[in-house]
Amino acid sequence: MERLKVLLFAWHSLTFNAQISRAVVVDTIFEPVFCLFDFFVRILGPAFLLVVIGLTTSVVVIYYAYLLPVIQEYSTPWVVFHLITAHWLLINIVFHYFKVVFTSPGLAPQETNLEDLKSGKYSLCKKCVRIKPPRSHHCSICKRCVLKMDHHCPWINNCVGHFNHRYFISFCFFMCLGTIYVTVTSSNLFIKHFFHDWNYKLIPSSNVSNGRNVTSLSSKPVFDKLHQKKFNHEANGVSESEHSSVLYVFILCSTVTLALGVLTGWHCHLIGRGETSIEWHSNIEEARTFRKQGLSYTVPQRFLGILITLALGITGEFFLDLLKEGVVYLMANVRSWLRLLLPSVHPPYGDGLTWPPPPESAARSNVRKLHIV
């Protein structure tokens, strides 16, 4: 037994590596799976773009074809409100989506400066053997080092990094608002079409176009809960295409609202913590290591914006440091609040290559700086 213990001790001594963690072991085991996944994401990237564009276009077409005629029966102020709101959301969604798709996230410099490596200003990427600025990460799908990389999003076929992070979060925000708007606007039509009296039959679309007499779904007016207004389609026939379109747009938008709402909330939470998605995973390991040593670990919340700070209700010493330093995220280089509500191409804070030190409050405490990946 003693000999076995000695052999085990010798084995652990020879194979021990302080840099190896549970996450590293799991990543190594699943490396083939990750490589296969990255390959399919890279190949199917354009298809994901077409899916997003196709689904968005279908919702817009259905809105003009079936929802707008109902909205036009409202009072004039409500019609104006709907037209302005719908087109404001549509313009922002289209603008921010194409900007996040076609804007480079920011790439690490191609040339290698030995002085920067010697001084410790930059590290060296082990995969592309090029200098790696702080907070940058090598994307296994794009095969390049991205500045302040958050993640690779297949729905935009691009990485989310320093120069398009604002477009990404703005797109998620406005798309979420847009799906909420369409869901609420179509809710009464959905109730009418989904819970109608099945004694009535739907008439094929061809019969409606040929001018044949069509029976409506219901002989009772529907009460519009949103605007406290009745609208009556007794005199109008309901085609199969209208029935299917109303069900489709409500189910699609309500589902996207739930999924995208969670995603947007999560990214706002990360922005509030001053982390990217990659840094969040790394900082979990750092915090676990610090707890084992009896130390506290705090992420220097240095890279978020005042707008998100106010939205999350963050107060205290960090907020004062934030105001003193003038560090902003969405508000970077913004001269007017309208630039947050309307399409804007103002650049983000900083160049993505160098980052200021942590706030004074974090520097004074016994914490490690933000983990750089």
How many beta-strand segments?
A: 8
Number of helices: 13
- Widest β-sheet, arrangement of strands: 1-2
- Give the helices and strands as they follow along the chain: HHHHHEEEEEEHHEEHHHHHH
| Helix content percent band | 55-70%
Low-confidence stretches: 197-201, 211-236, 301-331, 360-373
Shape: elongated
Q: Strand content of the residues, in percent? A: 5-15%
User: What structural class should be given to the helix and strand makeup?
Assistant: mainly alpha
Largest sheet: 2 strands, antiparallel
For the CA atoms, what is the radius of gyration? 27 Å
Average pLDDT, all residues: 74
N-to-C CA distance? 43 Å
Summarize this structure as a short list of keywords or feature phrases.
373 residues, two-stranded antiparallel ribbon, 8 strands, transmembrane, PFA4/ZDH16/20/ERF2-like, Palmitoyltrfase_DHHC, transferase, protein-cysteine S-palmitoyltransferase activity
Account of the protein in words:
The chain has 373 residues and is mostly helical. The chain has a domain at 51-107 and 164-199 and 243-355. It is built from 13 helices and 8 strands. It has helices spanning 2-15, 22-29, 31-71, 76-102, 114-119, 165-194, 205-209, 240-273, 277-292, 306-312, 317-325, 338-341, 360-364, and strands spanning 123-124, 131-132, 137-139, 144-146, 151-153, 158-160, 222-224, 229-231. Helix 4 (76-102) packs across helix 6 and helix 6 runs antiparallel to helix 8 (240-273). The longest helix is centred in the first third of the chain and has 41 residues, at 31-71. Mean pLDDT is 74; it is low at 197-201, 211-236, 301-331 and 360-373.
